[in-house]
Amino acid sequence: MTDGNERVGFARRLRTALGLMADIRGKDLLTAVEFMKLVYPNERPLVQGLKFAGWALDLVWSRMPDALRHVSIDKDISRTPYWQTAPNPLADHPWADDPDSVLPTEADAVVIGAGFGGSSVAYHWSKHADGNLVILDSMDPASGSAGRNAGHVVMAGGAYHGYYVYRSVLKYLPEVRPELTKTECSEIAARFADVYVRALHASHELILETIESEGIECDYVRKGQVHVGEEADMDDVEAALSLAGELGHDDYQRLRPDEVKRMSGVEAELDGAVSAGAGTWHPAKWIWGILGAAIPSGKVRLFTRTAARAVERDGSGYIVRTDRGDIRTRNVVNATDSHTQRLFDDWLDIYPDGKLVWPYRVQGIYAEPAPETIPMGVGVITGLGFFAKIPKGGTVFGTDHSPVKPHEAGRIDPSRFVTKFMSAELSRLWGAIPMRITHEWTGSVGVAPDWFPVVGPMDDDRLYILSGFCGSGSATSFNAGQYIVFQILGKECEPQYHPPEFFSPMRFTDPRRYGPQPVST
After folding, report:
1. Chain segment 448-462, per-residue pLDDT in tens
2. Single pTM value for the model
3. Among 17, 44, 186, 291, which is 20 to 30 Å from 105 by CA?
């Protein structure tokens, strides 16, 4: 690190710029394309490319050299996600305490994946069912995206609240319902956004109740999520605020620049927004907490480090084949999220192009200390990244949302260029301070074709899925897990937050199923 007042000269800028260029790999070009779309979303491709080239040149020659002179990166930097550095009470369960444990050959339900979705199903099963459920994970609980994310408990998706799914559904609709007018498409997309936000809000409230009733220690703080608006995404911020007003989503509110600074510590020049009910937490501790509450019921058995290899038909049920043996069951829940295309490939022929949930990469970074002006417990987002100060005194931050191939889902393969870029973003927003980066990692989230969650049966029988949360799984999954349990038990959810006309994966199997018809006027 260098003194904060040191002047960055030509030689240092040149060395930094060359070092940044040397860090760039093929996958970083995909990230660059995604950044270009975010920074200049409304320009024609040629203009977009030219403007982005100027932005990138200023970035590597000016902004990043200025910021990175304060940053050191550990030579032996850890690729363990920060959240997974806490002691995992369910690591190697049950083998650590009982090496002679045997996988059961039968169960009433088998859940594959012990992350946000699978653990939520297990918890609600322990409260509402009488049979036995087996939950499997190829590693340990919260070892996937549940232990590699931003640490935000959201009230809606992405940086733009309900507009996050509105614009994706609006883009997807003409592909499957070309007969609809623009007005009809907009009405349908707005309904998707509305039901999405309401499901998230209900799920977040259920999370709060559970944290209190179960006494789960997961560093939960509820002070909102601030979106720092910038010139490149102000059109989207305004559209998001407008949609929230139309749909009555009063959780999402405008912030004037002085309010942005008061809530986030960022010196803003433009208006931003806040999702007032959002919070921050330790996501892995949440997973360990709800599983820890479910297992003592005697209805839930967790088997870690047990990889599911295939799911096959078995008469009126299924066989789940694992590397420790086979389990016969009447009900299977796919909670593998970004691993769906790989593990359930044989079940996806009914979906267009054999695709249902595609993996997208996200990168996380941990640095310490955190700038003093970052408030504790407030999630901060921009069009390009996420940030959160944690009780230990450091910062978890990151970015990226680019597609990867199914066999790359879950792979920890961070980009050093992205690490440096986001470190420069951190310095740009809160001011450059001496900072040491100790962890960098990647995770993957599942994304459906319309960027809207899939919750319900993924075949014509009792193979269920909760996935495609597009980065909002921290909140959405908990209530969705209860819905899946009620589906298995044949019970009605009241109120119904996951109506199948919106959430069912079957919406992709027939264009006539996609999107409820708009009300005639």
Report:
1. 999 999 999 999 999
2. 0.91
3. 291
